What we know:
Layout: H1 2-37, H2 40-63, H3 66-96, H4 99-178
Helix pairs in contact: 1-2, 1-3, 1-4, 2-3, 3-4
Amino acid sequence: xxxxxxxxxxxxxxxxxxxxxxxxxxxxxxxxxxxxxxxxxxxxxxxxxxxxxxxxxxxxxxxxxxxxxxxxxxxxxxxxxxxxxxxxxxxxxxxxxxxxxxxxxxxxxxxxxxxxxxxxxxxxxxxxxxxxxxxxxxxxxxxxxxxxxxxxxxxxxxxxxxxxxxxxxxxxxxxxxxx
Length: 179
């Protein structure tokens, strides 16, 4: 039914939003690791985390309900802002070994990352609440169906008893009158 399909889509969207929340956090984590260790491995992992953010955002554009789309757009903006800050400011400051700038820019990046993660978490909560409501609705529909079925069965039994008793009474009463 439509409700079941809606629930399936929402569960897929919920998984995507959980992955987006993780990917946004990893984006900043790999930036921080690169600043600390200056190991190229972290730049590669950072690029992979950006790709995952983009993949999950694309999926959520398709799957998330309209009420969650503004949060998807906010995560996307914040992730891009974080990427731009890293590429245009943090990387050059790190290459120059400008420690005061690195510290300041890292704090700025941390704030952007926290904001993106908060927006991603809002998507998770909204979708989770929507799934809970859908499950409650499905349970109510199932209970109503069971109650309707039980009423129909009882009504069928009552009608069957009535139709059985009537002819029986019509046949047996004349027999008693003869004897």
